[in-house]
Design a protein that fits this description.
This protein is an alpha/beta fold. The protein is about 40% helix and about 10% strand. It has 16 helices and twelve strands.
Length: about 400
């Protein structure tokens, strides 16, 4: 039986913060390094993800040290590399060329990371792709995978294959092209990332293909997802694995604290708070932080979160990150008792689609994926009907 772990994608404001050596002095008199993986952090979380594009072209560009050393990332912590495919697709959408080559991506990950991702090119960023877009992305990804397989020098750390495709047909097409590469697991990059049914389908696809039974399969990762309604699906899926396979998922959503000064309440409570300019209109009556997490317990005055400097937003982001970690850990502890697990989800007003995704996993294990897709067809396709964007971590 495996468990899941949340992996925060490192924002550039963190890299800048750490590179400048800024520290936060809490009301307890202690100076915090504003990281989340050292003895001087508010809390110690041993997972992070860094996109190699920013590792190469961001703050790391000005340092002579390798990125991992520049940010003081510990040897015993896990740094997952993101190959930069999203940035390549983003630049292409704007009609620009991304300053990142496949070999740059591979070498940077080999030098800095504990888990590497193949350079997949996503077929879409924000909509259902056309068949032509899908095939173009697949063919380019396969060329990148060939290069990674041929040029790989570091075999001590896992290098993950990537699965895309929002329907069974598309998954079959993609999988047939990538299944024979000698890699060490899979990352699921299916869209919408926040849709629990889609993630459950991707998981069961790999299950049915026998991927999880292979001794070479070391790691399963879900790309760019961490919302309240999709994490239970990933936790439940991981609990069905008979082998000890590491399961992780990443997102940068917590960083809304730095971007918009949005402060997440615990996942089972509900409403958010706002700081900065929005504080005066949204919740000026709140004079004390309604949280005793390791971050908030060091903040002496709530007004610190309204200041325009880099500290306020970063403190909120760290608080938000802790909520993701806390929620993930609760679910991992409850999932061993399905009745209690489902009862908890119902009590925190989980989306019905999440509950259906858990049913889907059980049905697919017993009756096969094709039968499960047919039974839960209305919850899966057509994707054109599933165009509502996730407003925040609580709503679809």
């Amino acid at each position: 039986m495996s468990r899941t772990d949340f992996v925060p994608a490192i924002g550039e404001q963190f890299n800048s913060f750490w590179n400048r050596g800024l520290k936060y002095k809490g009301k307890d008199g202690k100076e915090y390094d504003m990281k989340f993986y050292t003895s001087n952090s508010h809390f110690n979380h041993k997972y992070a993800l860094q996109t190699c594009y920013y590792g190469i072209n961001g703050v790391g560009k000005t340092s002579s040290k390798r990125f991992r050393d520049m940010i003081g990332y510990p040897k015993d912590a896990i740094l997952i590399g993101d190959s930069g495919g999203f940035q390549i697709a983003s630049f292409k959408k704007k009609g620009e060329v991304c300053n990142l080559t496949p070999i740059d991506s591979l070498r940077w990950q080999e030098e800095n990371c504990d888990v590497m991702m193949n350079l997949d090119v996503p077929s879409t960023l924000d909509k259902v792709p056309s068949y032509g877009d899908f095939m173009e992305a697949l063919n380019q990804s396969v060329e990148n995978f060939k290069l990674f397989e041929k040029e790989r020098k570091n075999y001590d750390i896992p290098l993950l294959n990537v699965l895309h495709g929002e329907t069974l047909k598309l998954m079959e097409i993609w999988y047939d092209k990538v299944k024979d590469f000698k890699f060490d697991g899979f990352a699921i990059g299916m869209k919408p990332a926040w849709n629990p049914m889609i993630q459950a389908m991707g998981f069961m696809f790999l299950w049915e293909k026998g991927e999880f039974d292979k001794d070479s399969f070391k790691w399963l990762h879900f790309f760019g997802t961490s919302g309240k309604h999709v994490v239970p699906t990933m936790v439940y899926a991981a609990s069905k694995l008979s082998r000890d396979i590491k399961v992780t998922y990443d997102s940068s959503s917590y960083n809304i604290g730095s971007i918009y000064r949005t402060y997440y309440m615990p996942f089972d409570l509900g409403p958010h708070l706002s700081f900065g300019e929005k504080y005066k209109k949204a919740n000026p009556q709140i004079k004390e932080l309604p949280c005793e997490c390791p971050v908030c317990s060091t903040i002496g005055d709530i007004e610190e979160l309204n200041k325009p400097d880099i500290f306020g937003g970063t403190l909120i982001s760290l608080h938000n990150m802790y909520q993701y970690i806390y929620y993930n850990n609760i679910l991992n502890k409850l999932v061993h008792n399905k009745e209690l697990f489902i009862d908890y989800l119902n009590k925190i007003n989980i989306n019905e689609k999440t509950l259906k995704s858990i049913e889907f996993i059980d049905f697919a294990i017993e009756h096969g994926l094709t039968n499960a897709i047919e039974k839960y067809h209305d919850w899966l396709i057509p994707q054109e009907l599933n165009t509502t964007k996730q407003v925040n971590i609580f709503n679809f």
